[in-house]
Design goal:
With about 80 residues, this protein is α+β, with helices and mostly antiparallel strands. About 30% of the residues lie in helices and about 30% in strands. The protein is built from 2 helices and 4 strands, in the order βββααβ. It has a 4-stranded antiparallel beta sheet, with helices on one face.
């Protein structure tokens, strides 16, 4: 199984995904080209990243930073 680790960035619109080989990609909800990394990830990882974006953007604006500060990186395992 391949393991991907998802970590929140310092702002709501940024997450980092550590790939099985140790490289790290930035995934954002922007439309500046940085969002291109997401479709290249396995579907299970895309779902986890999108779920995190959904959770944080569902929070009241003044609660988002506390959520980010207290979030714990989590792993997604993908069968190859």
């Amino acid at each position: 199984m391949a393991k991907y680790t998802i970590t929140h960035g310092s702002i709501a619109a940024v997450q980092y995904v550590t790939l099985p080989d140790g490289d790290k990609v930035i995934v954002t909800d922007a439309r500046d080209g940085s969002e291109i990394a997401l479709p290249k990830l396995p579907l299970e990882v895309q779902a986890a990243v999108n779920r995190q974006f959904g959770t944080i953007f569902a929070l009241p604006y003044d609660s988002r930073q506390a959520f980010i500060d207290n979030s714990i990186p989590f792993d997604v395992e993908v069968t190859e």
